[in-house]
Amino acid sequence: MTDSLLNERELSFQLYELQDTEALLQRPRYAEHDRAVFDATLETARGIAAEYFAPHNQKGDANEPTFDGRTISLIPETKVAWDAFAEAGFLAAHHDAADGGLQLPEVILRASMAYFNAANIATVAYSFLTIGAANLVKSFAGEELRQRFLPPMLDGRFSGTMALTEPGQGSALGDLRTSARPAGDGSYRISGQKMFISGGDHELTENIVHMVLARLDGAPAGTRGISLFLVPKFLVNPDGSLGARNDVALAGLLHKHGYRNTTSTVLSFGEHEGAVGYLVGEAGKGLSYMFQMMNEARIGVALGASSLAYQSFIHALDYARERPQGRLPGAKDPLAPQVRIIEHADVRRMLLQQKAYAEGSLALCLYASSLFEDAHTAPEETARREAGELLDLLIPMVKSYPSKYCVIASDIGIQVLGGSGYIREYPLEQYYRDNRLNPIHEGTEGIHGLDLLGRKLQQNGGAGYRLFLQQVRGALREAARDDHCAALGYVLAGALDRLQEVTENLLGQVAADPNLGLSNATVYLDLFGRVLVGWLWLRMALVASRALAAGATGSEADFYQGKLQAARYFIDWELASVDAQARLLGAGNRTSFDMRDSWF
Amino acid sequence: MTDSLLNERELSFQLYELQDTEALLQRPRYAEHDRAVFDATLETARGIAAEYFAPHNQKGDANEPTFDGRTISLIPETKVAWDAFAEAGFLAAHHDAADGGLQLPEVILRASMAYFNAANIATVAYSFLTIGAANLVKSFAGEELRQRFLPPMLDGRFSGTMALTEPGQGSALGDLRTSARPAGDGSYRISGQKMFISGGDHELTENIVHMVLARLDGAPAGTRGISLFLVPKFLVNPDGSLGARNDVALAGLLHKHGYRNTTSTVLSFGEHEGAVGYLVGEAGKGLSYMFQMMNEARIGVALGASSLAYQSFIHALDYARERPQGRLPGAKDPLAPQVRIIEHADVRRMLLQQKAYAEGSLALCLYASSLFEDAHTAPEETARREAGELLDLLIPMVKSYPSKYCVIASDIGIQVLGGSGYIREYPLEQYYRDNRLNPIHEGTEGIHGLDLLGRKLQQNGGAGYRLFLQQVRGALREAARDDHCAALGYVLAGALDRLQEVTENLLGQVAADPNLGLSNATVYLDLFGRVLVGWLWLRMALVASRALAAGATGSEADFYQGKLQAARYFIDWELASVDAQARLLGAGNRTSFDMRDSWF
């Protein structure tokens, strides 16, 4: 079996052919860098991922964290990997040089993370969460708090968590009950229970910084009453040394389907005197801060899904190329040698489907990262604003499409291997189990469907949606002039028409009756996601077509032919049901809405 | 959480309203029985499943079998459950009274098995395999062999396995290499390695009877050279007492994704003097014997998938009815109480989808069982022949539809519970893992697609296919006269037209070029499966509509309304993409066929 992580050729296609990542070097923020720095960063990520993360991926799964009532035990390789990641500077890769960061573009950080996700998503989750928590501290904490907590989070002495969910509330953050009361010294005392907190306890770092959503005493009900607090596991003295243990207790470990080397915890805040917490930013703005960070977290989750799908794909491909079995349908001679299973068209169908999902999802995540980048560092104010509007619109699909379809890609990986895919002697079933978390955390499809149809489409007067249509139309115009892509563009144009019709129609339905109008929002989200990824596949096909026209040969020509064929697969087969879905949505199908509890 | 197994009301609907199981009592074979015997059998199955199987389902998963080099250890509850199953007579439920059996109809045995599958599919697998092996002995072994081995297999002293697969061959049975040479005393010496043999070793029974496919020395290559041998773990003396240990060794245990309490083994036959084996039936007919039994095994696998999907459904339903979270889109007051998640239309959509897959699959399996029954015990020769032809045609869908869609139903169960679905503290993720085996064993979708399009459609001059069309048209005529069902029938009629067109078209493509014409056979299989299950949903809707018209009230009316709504869901949403699939198939889409290894 392969020990590859992702595919360097694919990543370079995505970064430098599909996107123009080199153009970022023109921006003042990246003027000190050059292409070689980007490539060296990716090479470092790949090397550390291969050396320190991949070798214990299976071991961490088979030996999940344990808690003896006092201490959590993780396999020791986890700490070695954490240190290697931190020492190479990846915790601070996108931070300012002034803060000790590498000041690298978002898309380079993401592409680096793809290697770590591919190698061992459960171990790198501690880093992923710390990066997210540090982003919150950096963006919203006051100067004193930031100086005390950010440096050790960037150099790896402290790790971080996002402590949102509670046992009684799940996706409805407005109902959270964890409380905060002023202690009189500028700090607060936090009390309550949080659940499903990844990385909520462990011994990897000196300290753990929990970013906790809680409700100030007397704050209004609902989302407007939620504030953000920084609650460390150990208090930190003004000189940076560690103080007393804070009143944050591990109430229990949860035992997951996959992603096992990441602790999933129930945390009790303030069982005794109350946990010391510090208000981050302004009271009542906790949820808005969290949402500003959530776009990054959601791209990150989607990228994790894409990376795991890619691993499933390359392992299945490797197996299909090596495993002899059976003969082609036309062969009648039982003495003829067996063929490798990749020679069966149905196996190629499965591999094409995996490729289409994994590479389409990867393209979507890196495109979203580039929008995030542009929203922050594009030279023109208009470009920054438009990138932000487009990203806001697309985030529901950016999160949901890879989370849904990359799990399917991992499932197909099991199927390609058959019985071998089903046993733990091969890595496919673990990729599946790890990947299955992704449609759950950072918002289920149901949540994102409501967000898209109930909010995002009409945000800023529909500006993001109009920008999306413009982008797709641009690619369609290019495709019309390209021999390889004209037919693909024609199909995508039809799907785009259906999307536009159904969008207009559904917005009318929502205005007339929100409950009924939103009842099929998840199906609409799926349809939109496929059109979006269809557009990315058309763009990949256009790049490939130009490269072939320019005379690519040998393995390069093969690579581009593969891109064209996967684009054909996607546009033929994955867009085929857009018409039917659009028809049912447009007709306001009431089947789910009308179903009653008592009828089940 | 619920501790229910399946749903008695549903099973009674399937057996006595959708099917006319009572009519079997008219047949001479069942004349001694009455409806009360059928019901008591089901009640016994439910009771034993609940008392002896369900309680250790999670424990068996968490403590999989171990092998210390000498002995296999299973959790002790496994043996208690095996004994309870055997003592109640389920190993012999369908066998003749003269052989010590209960002489019950196939469909009653299957419905009983559904309870055991729902309770603990990994533990009941030992029984399932023994039933299959005993069927082979009963049908094809000579008198002496049958007398020596069948009684202890029916009373539970011996268990059985099906030893087909080898490491180098997988689905292509024609390439198996295990050899058999005559020993001169009428027995044979078997040598070779078998892999993925479920129940291949354990200490549950005094002896294990392996039904082994092997190749006689000098036999022709390919499938015609394969014979069937009975190879016991311990030799059995003519008086029935156990003799020496046979030369069958456990080479290793495999570690599965789910189904963990079933040992999955690598077995070595004849490492030393050669394993003693006895030819079953005639030389060279091994595969044809196996295929005659495979229809039963395939219905059994599909029923396992359906049972697990049903458990996923009822657990998700129970959770959705109890778990409060969030508010409906129109609600603006953050102080309003949370609603139970079943009040969200999207959760009802997921539950409807689960219900549609689980109940549709259950209906398909029990319908296939009734065809199996008719093929053997229908009074008229024509009816027996037609039932056999229809079953032969439909077996690829009977195996594949439940295996594919019931795994999706189990996946949806995880999603309904969200974070709780992902952790092992709830049973949903185990149902998923257990269910994931079903699309792999007893033939993958790829294998069944080729079987359907390359062989079954034209078998007996297309007789089975014509019978299927007649059956569906019969239901369509009924639907046209029914207020609730006319619109559903209209949609199904369109799907049937598409199926007919594409079938004719594809048969032409296959005749012109088998490799190309069969390249999308799996997609065709999926399309056919959805039309088939759509027909069963229409029939369920017709029964429900008649019951409502006849004045059903209260919970009975609710039950029938649920059937109608699930039929609407299935026919609206699951048949929606038939047109698009048929168009691509009809056009002979070449995407997968044309893809090349080097392009990946």
TrEMBL record, chains A, B:
Its cofactor is FAD. Residues 284-450 form the Acyl-CoA dehydrogenase/oxidase C-terminal domain. It comes from Metapseudomonas resinovorans NBRC 106553. Keywords: FAD, Flavoprotein, Oxidoreductase. This is Putative acyl-CoA dehydrogenase. GO terms for molecular function: flavin adenine dinucleotide binding; oxidoreductase activity, acting on the CH-CH group of donors. Residues 41-156 form the Acyl-CoA dehydrogenase/oxidase N-terminal domain. Pfam families: Acyl-CoA_dh_1, Acyl-CoA_dh_C, Acyl-CoA_dh_M, Acyl-CoA_dh_N. The keyword Flavoprotein applies. Belongs to the acyl-CoA dehydrogenase family. Its EC number is 1.3.99.-. Residues 469-595 form the Acetyl-CoA dehydrogenase-like C-terminal domain. Residues 162-264 form the Acyl-CoA oxidase/dehydrogenase middle domain. SUPFAM superfamilies: Acyl-CoA dehydrogenase C-terminal domain-like, Acyl-CoA dehydrogenase NM domain-like.
